[in-house]
Design a protein that fits this description.
Helix content: 40-55%
Organism: Rubrivivax gelatinosus
Shape: globular
CATH class of one domain: Alpha Beta
Number of helices: 13
Pfam families: Aldo_ket_red (PF00248)
Protein name: Oxidoreductase
CATH superfamily of one domain: NADP-dependent oxidoreductase domain
CATH architecture of one domain: Alpha-Beta Barrel
InterPro entries: AKR_Detox_Biosynth, NAD(P)_OxRdtase_dom_sf, NADP_OxRdtase_dom
Distance between the termini: 53 Å
CATH topology of one domain: TIM Barrel
């Protein structure tokens, strides 16, 4: 029997499309509008929201947290992802003298405590190390993750922008669930460097940032962008969807089951990403996009 009761996300699982909050501070939404944006994303089936402590100069998490505090029932319906490990020089962190990375236990724990306060929550569903720290001690990171998990402050852990060897180094010490990486029809390094192969081998779906190449896919005037855009538009006409939906479907076609992050205040843009879940591109269509991006046929 069908009801109008919103479905609860399953524990530990991210939705197949993730809402990105990197530019939340730029959208000019008041608190009520932020609540509506979250509710409309949830209505589309997007239950996961991606943050980082540094977004908006350490302000974006608090903007989202204000919305959660205004509508407390939302928290149980969504999953919160956030990242730490980058130290920015800005007014919100006067003690930072240069931009650097810090994966020490003290910094990870302090960052989580700050994110919990900003987001008005008692737990982070998924915590990611934002960038590889050249001074990282994987045993110290594993100890910090274990302490946070035991305290119930973080439920699952992963990394972002890590190479396969960097991921494996930490994964051998503590179970990770995802590597958040850049991947788009204009940025295919993850296909060549083993990152997606590792995700597939381990059965750990990668999160995908900048799936539309930061807007360059549809606004760029360089030769690569023009070639790819022409193919996407042709495929969009064939399938009766938008070119953006085809771009998301191209990413989703990879067997590692990528989770694209779409960061827009426009619900229509989120809907275009969700629509890609219903479009499975034929392999030849996928390779048409690949060929347009690379400017050559496969070898």
């Amino acid at each position: 029997m069908e009801t109008d009761t919103p479905k609860q996300p399953q524990p530990g699982l991210l939705s197949p499309v993730v809402a990105g909050c990197w530019r939340l501070h730029e959208w000019g939404l008041d608190r009520a509008a932020r609540v509506r944006w979250i509710e409309r994303a949830l209505a589309l089936g997007i239950t996961s929201f991606d943050h980082a402590d540094i977004y908006g100069g350490y302000t974006a998490e608090a903007l989202f947290g204000e919305a959660l505090a205004a509508a407390p029932g939302l928290r149980q319906r969504l999953r919160l992802v956030t990242k730490c490990g980058i130290k920015l020089v800005c007014g919100a962190r006067p003690a930072h003298t240069i931009k650097s990375y810090d994966s020490s236990r003290g910094h990870i724990v302090a960052s989580v405590e700050a994110s919990l306060r900003a987001l008005h929550t008692d737990r982070i569903d998924l915590l990611l190390l934002h960038r590889p720290d050249l001074l990282a001690d994987p045993d110290e990171i594993a100890a910090a993750f274990d302490a946070l998990r035991r305290a119930g402050k973080v439920l699952q852990f992963g990394v972002s922008n890590h190479t396969p060897s960097q991921f494996a180094l930490l994964h051998r010490r503590f179970p990770l669930v995802s590597n958040q990486i850049e991947f788009s029809p204009l940025q295919m390094q993850a296909l060549a460097d083993g990152t997606l192969e590792q995700a597939l081998d381990l059965g750990l779906p990668p999160m995908i940032w900048s799936p539309l190449a930061g807007g360059r896919l549809f606004r760029g005037d360089d030769e690569q962008a023009r070639r790819v855009r022409a193919v996407l538009e042709a495929l969009a006409a064939e399938h009766g969807v938008s070119a953006a939906t085809v771009a998301y479907a191209w990413i989703l076609r990879h067997p590692s089951r990528p989770l694209p992050i779409t960061g827009s205040s426009r619900i229509e843009a989120l809907a275009e990403a969700v629509a890609a879940l219903s479009l499975r591109l034929p392999a030849e269509a996928w390779y048409r996009v690949w060929q347009a991006s690379m400017g050559r046929e496969v070898a």
